[in-house]
Design a protein that fits this description.
alpha/beta; 6-stranded mixed β-sheet; 14% strand; Rossmann fold; 2 domains
Length: 234
């Protein structure tokens, strides 16, 4: 039996011109997660990442943390150099297109608490509509096709691997994967998505036949007072 570690990217740059970049905190979160994996002696036989910049940057931080953590603990095996496989099916939905499908006017950039709340209220509405088939955000696939891209990545893991595998993606694909495993309604992924924290780890046990949910949305690497203010959601 293998274990698939699903990791959401580090904090991105909400409100900036380019959201698809890790913030300074996002880089620190990613590095810290790699250090934690090293202290646990984790070795990964494969790494899958989405094709977005924040996915690649998160993996780069984890890999750096694995190396520095291995140096500190003497567990050299965790510092192995792995080439990540890029899976476009693990890319996030387009939040601007989702919001645009339920709100015709301009929305303020989410740089204030009020704008932040408005952004996520509209995003929740748009995701519910998209998942239920009631909205077609411009330039985006149908939700069923979005799901299929994620399922293909999970199927690949089951077919090709039997040990520890790391998958770095975003909240939407990870929430969708969990909702699929639980047999939840399409719209249920929205609430799972909204609760996922940056660099949160969800674990799936897998065999050649199936995946089984083991943990969801955990932050073992930040679970001390020292890192309490590193916890973020966007």
């Amino acid at each position: 039996m293998g274990t698939l570690y699903l990791v959401r990217h580090g904090q991105a740059s909400l409100g900036a011109d380019d959201y698809d970049q890790l913030s300074a905190l996002g880089h620190r979160q990613s590095l810290r997660l790699g250090e934690y994996f090293a202290t646990k002696g984790l070795c990964f036989e494969a790494v899958l990442v989405g094709g977005m910049k924040r996915h690649a940057q998160t993996w780069a931080g984890i890999a750096a943390g694995l190396r520095t953590g291995a140096d500190a603990t003497g567990t050299a095996a965790t510092a192995q150099e792995l080439q990540a496989s890029v899976w476009p099916g693990l890319n996030e939905y387009d939040s601007a297109a989702v919001i645009g499908s339920v709100h015709a006017g301009e929305t303020p950039r989410p740089t204030t608490p009020e704008a932040y709340r408005a952004h996520f209220r509209l995003l929740r509405q748009g995701l519910q509509q998209w998942a239920g088939g009631g909205a077609a955000p411009q330039g985006m696939p149908r939700y069923a096709d979005f799901v299929q891209g994620i399922v293909e990545a999970l199927d690949h893991v089951r077919r090709e691997h039997s040990g520890n595998v790391l998958l770095v993606s975003s909240g939407g694909p990870i929430a969708t994967a969990v909702a699929q495993l639980l047999g939840s309604s399409p719209q249920a992924f929205v609430e799972l998505n909204m609760r996922l924290r940056n660099t949160a780890v969800s674990e799936l046990a897998f065999t050649p036949k199936r995946h089984t949910l083991h943990t969801f949305n955990t932050l073992p690497h930040l679970d001390t007072a020292e890192y309490a203010d590193w916890i973020s959601y966007a």
